[in-house]
Amino acid sequence: MVAFLGPAFAGLLGGSFVVETIFQIPGLGRFYVQAAFNRDYTMILGMTIFFATLIILFNLLSDMLAIWLNPKLRQQQAGGNN
Fold it and tell me: Could you tell me the pTM of the whole model?
């Protein structure tokens, strides 16, 4: 369950582009789409790096939480043979 949360948050973040654009909600996803239409390459690059960092962070945190919650994963991480 916990391993699913990281990619689920990433999908939720990716879905914000569509929702914010369709419903005209001001947010980072809408600014990203507007920058693409306006060919603002600096904004596109900055937002891409920002969203990629968030996705990597969500995945890392979900993996760390899974290791912390599951004793078998903690033992494997520590180098145990069992």
Answer: 0.76
